[in-house]
Amino acid sequence: MADLQRYDELREAQRKANTALLKALLDGAKGRAMIFAGARALKYKVIDDTIAFPDEEATDRLYEFLLYEPRANGSVWAESVLESENEFLPLEREVVRATVDGRVSLYEIRRVNRPESTILVQDLLDEGPDIEIVDRGLSRTASPDGIVFGRVVTVGELRFFSGASVTFGRGEKTLLLSQLAKLNKVRNDTLFRRKRFALFMELEKYSSIRTLYEL
Q: pTM value?
């Protein structure tokens, strides 16, 4: 049985840490420039000083991209702030570091256990064993034959999606894997990771499933 109390503690630490990371990002003209550049990278419309988000979830996905995907110089904002700030509590630091190190991939859902808020998934890009994911939001709406693009965070023995995941139907599996295969031609790791995130945000428009997640 999943340790939901521990999961809730980690989620709360994640929310507080992300709030502090975003506060640091929003401070000053440089941060604003990063936000607009990130929005353009995800193909959101930027008109003057306004970002036209396509939906409510797009804001969270932009923040995930800015905080945890590498910048053009290869550094990760969350990691940089963590090294320079002392205001984070130990558990918040642990969650941020685990998120930076999280595994971003395509995960095929094998089984959904709604009473326990867990999902059993298989990493489609790795031949390892199935992984049990704890996620109160996604477990309520996930289809047993869905596919999730997201970042799996591991803290101790508990694993959960970082938040801004995208869910697809199994019928879209071939499209997802073929598009990712094209992207594998990009040899620069930083550029690949940025393009991969942007690709799946773009592919969401073809998804037959609306995602419900926690950030």
A: 0.90
